[in-house]
Every structure is written in C-alpha cells, then in structure tokens.
C-alpha cells in the first residue's frame, strides 16, 4: 500500500468535564496534552503531515511557536467547535482538510500512545490492507460480566451462571486512540472507518483516555510512578 499518511488532531476549546484539558499543565509539560501529542506525532516516521484543527486560541498561539515542519494548523470554525458538534460533522471536516491519502485520526487525550505505537499501527494497517481490511481502529478487550436490558451480553448463564472472567468471550471497546482509513473510505462511507475495519488491540494502560477529572489525575500518577512513559 502506498499513499501519504496525515494525522488529524481535533482539539476544541471549552472542555466541560476538565477545564482547559487539552493545554492544562501535565507532569513536566507546561502545555500539557497538546504538547505531548504534537511531540509524539512529530517523531512518527510513518506520518507525513500533522493537521491540527482547533478553535482554542491558547493552542493556536502555542502551535504557532513550534518548529515542526510537518505541522499544519487550521483555525476551526466555531460552528464546528461546540459540545453539540457531532462526530459525523467532524468526519466531513477531516475529509475537507485532507482530501487525499490516508487519514490517521487521533486525540491528545490518549497520551500513552507514543510514536512507537503509531509506527506499529501504521505498519499493521498497511499489512492488513493487503489482507482485505479497508481500515483500522484501536480497541481494548474487556473481560467482564457485561449486561444490557436485563441479560448478559457476552456469556450464557444457562451454561454457567458465573464463569471465570478469563474464559469469558471478550467484548472490544473502541478506545478512540486511532482511526486509520483512506480518504476514499471517508468519501464512500461518510465515516472514519470502512465496512471491514481491522481491530487493533491496545491494553488498558496504553489506551487510557482522559475524559473525566479523575482520568487526568490517574494518568499523572501512572507517569510519576513510572508505569508508563511519554
């Protein structure tokens, strides 16, 4: 498989759960998650360009001070930057900014997905395309008792009421660390994945997503304890 790979990094201002989440100081990084992610993406050999789409003036100001040659900064329209903006709208926005090649959609809220992981994911994507997969997304396997509407989702209580969790068929949780597909898939499906995505597994720690205040604190603790690296 050939074709340019462009990272799409959406960052809107006004996080409701964690104020200034994307640029709030994190460990020894004064500009927090956005600083971490841009430095990680800059080191990824398989990424040709980074498109940062944001309406956050602090992030815009910070990004414009960086000496990252492959970084393209886009000031996003406020109509595409509210808490009501749907992912479907952002899919169209990503395609508008990146009309050709392959789009690697990622988030600053996955700080433990490093340049090494991105290169491994890109290599896997290229190999799986040859095997018939049309896209890739990262997932985390859940080995737990999952119920919905009063019934188990992933085990049969008529066979065994409480099986060992190690033997339960895992459910794949989309962790939103990476979505990787060609612009043609975006055009055809109006989606960031195709009809046959490869599910790339990341463990629970690497895929840690910062969505709530406690997620931010836990992430800092894991770095300070040396459990993960950036």
SSE layout and pairing:
Layout: E1 5-11, H1 32-42, E2 49-54, H2 57-63, E3 71-75, H3 87-97, E4 102-106, H4 115-130, E5 135-142, E6 147-148, E7 151-152, E8 171-182, H5 183-189, E9 197-201, H6 213-224
Parallel strand pairs: 1-2, 1-4, 2-3, 5-9
Antiparallel strand pairs: 4-8, 5-8, 6-7
InterPro entries: CMP-NeuNAc_synthase (IPR050793), Cytidylyl_trans (IPR003329), Nucleotide-diphossugar_trans (IPR029044)
Pfam families: CTP_transf_3 (PF02348)
Protein name: Cytidylyltransferase domain-containing protein
Structure characterization notes:
Helix content is 28%, strand content 23%. The relative contact order is 0.18. The longest helix has 16 residues, at 115-130. It is of the alpha/beta class and 230 residues long. It has a single domain (5-224), classed as Spore Coat Polysaccharide Biosynthesis Protein SpsA, Chain A (Alpha-Beta Complex), CATH 3.90.550.10. The chain contains six helices and nine strands; from the N terminus they run E-H-E-H-E-H-E-H-E-E-E-E-H-E-H. The strands form two sheets. A seven-stranded mixed β-sheet has the order 3-2-1-4-8-5-9, with helices on both faces. A two-stranded antiparallel sheet has the order 6-7.
């Amino acid at each position: 498989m050939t074709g340019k790979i462009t990272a799409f990094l959406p960052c809107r201002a006004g996080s409701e759960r964690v104020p200034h989440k994307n640029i709030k100081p994190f460990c020894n990084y004064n500009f927090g998650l956005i600083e971490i992610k841009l430095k990680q993406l800059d080191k990824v050999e398989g990424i040709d360009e980074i498109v940062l789409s944001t309406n956050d003036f602090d992030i815009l100001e910070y990004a414009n001070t960086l000496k990252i040659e492959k970084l393209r900064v886009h000031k996003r329209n406020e109509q595409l930057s509210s808490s009501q903006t749907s992912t479907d709208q952002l899919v169209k926005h990503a395609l508008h900014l990146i009309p050709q090649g392959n789009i690697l959609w990622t988030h600053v809220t996955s700080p433990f997905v490093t340049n090494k992981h991105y290169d491994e994911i890109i290599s896997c994507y290229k190999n799986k395309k040859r095997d018939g997969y049309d896209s890739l997304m990262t997932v985390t396997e859940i080995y737990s008792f999952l119920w919905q509407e009063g019934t188990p989702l992933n085990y049969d209580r008529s066979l065994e009421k409480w099986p060992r969790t190690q033997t339960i068929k895992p459910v794949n949780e989309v962790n939103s660390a990476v979505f990787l597909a060609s612009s043609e898939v975006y055009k055809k499906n109006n989606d960031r994945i195709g009809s046959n995505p490869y599910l790339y597994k990341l463990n629970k720690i690497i895929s840690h997503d910062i969505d709530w205040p406690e997620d931010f604190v836990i992430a800092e603790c894991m770095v300070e304890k040396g459990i993960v690296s950036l």
